[in-house]
């Protein structure tokens, strides 16, 4: 009897002691500050919502497939990719769509047990929303809102449970260049259509405001706050605030607009183009904002638009971004939330699972199964499709998210045909990429820059197995190949990431690095097998 009681006592208190020690260790590891960007690499146009003590964030994905990445966090700093909104070919067809189009500016919201993603498929059918009970998916098929003109849709629910759509539009007679309207209208979710009066809320705060877009409306202490982007998603970008006591009345511009911008910091300030934000209130009542920005490296932006976090305080209803600073900071005190690191992806993907990791994407919509995972190999079917066309080629890429990285792969590929290739690719658009490819009897380094495709180096090679590597250091790239990782040979001189950077390509989508195989227009049964892919930083 005594022994049983003692064991019960020891077990209970041992559990408490273990929990205390773990929380103490966790508290010890929790840093005071966090580093921006919180979502590095190709993650523009962030939108965020909170459900209880869980935070969900989405970013624009353009023609990448799966589309609409959904990230989860418990502390606004550590984020984990948990799923995508577009995961079925029948949801959306990106084929024929340019890399700068596709999914633009998603808004994520939660209401009465359902998650909503509302967005624009630019140059591919317009505005739609999808819903899910679990943010990791599966998500519904699109509900298209044909009456919704413009881009950058958002949703808010008023106290009377009515849902309001807000968006940008240029569908009116302009009084000045770049003039856009922010408008709202009730969205009847039962009828799945816009109903009632359509009301223009603002054309932006400045008397010649350009590109008023990405609206989000919040009801705070009984008043309506509208934040929007103005100035266009480049160095004149900004966030402005507008207020009203009724959602269907014109909003009045806040006296301190723009409430956030880096345009007054000059063209060389290391974080540029800050704008396009969304606000979230924590379970402790604090307010934070996620915004897009660009980090300059030697005047270039190789990592495209990324997501940054900044503190927001309210003063008489006005959102004050990073009080005392008025700008996005690369480091600041982290939110008062339980520090919750997420599991880090291993640098090397051994392709040992029976499905691809969520970080892998193709570009445009796959209409057939052209890759397989088997016995620890990723095998790509060579197909006639090429990345130079607006089609879905046999390419799998993941975001480049660091100024210094090393990417490698081990390829097993043999062909007797001159037109067949397989290898490593750094891809921004069909007009701007690098690829290091194995062919019938050689290795070639190919660059496509401003639409001009050229072989910039080659070397004889006939063995079936080859290791490829590319090292990035800010804008410098060095490619190499070899029979083993201990015997690598550089190929070509130092190349430049300017090829895929903002100054030379569209300012919208971002860069991916990964694997590609093609038969360049010919039908074939040839395949290329990759043993592993490693992205180290
Ligand atoms: C986004 C809009 C924008 O919908 O770019 O320049 C679009 N502004 O806010 C894609 O990022």
From TrEMBL:
Keywords, ordered alphabetically: Glycosidase, Hydrolase, Signal
CDD domains: GH43_XynB-like
Gene3D superfamilies for the chain: 2.60.120.200, Glycosyl hydrolase domain, family 43
Residue ranges occupied by any Beta-xylosidase C-terminal Concanavalin A-like domain in the UniProt entry: 348-536
SUPFAM superfamilies in UniProt: Arabinanase/levansucrase/invertase (SSF75005), Concanavalin A-like lectins/glucanases (SSF49899)
Endpoints of the signal sequence: 1-27
GO terms classed as biological process: carbohydrate metabolic process
GO molecular function: hydrolase activity, hydrolyzing O-glycosyl compounds
Keyword Signal applies: yes
A Pfam family assignment: Glyco_hydro_43
Family membership noted in the UniProt record: Belongs to the glycosyl hydrolase 43 family.
Stated name of the protein: Glycoside hydrolase family 43 protein
Organism name: Flavobacterium sufflavum
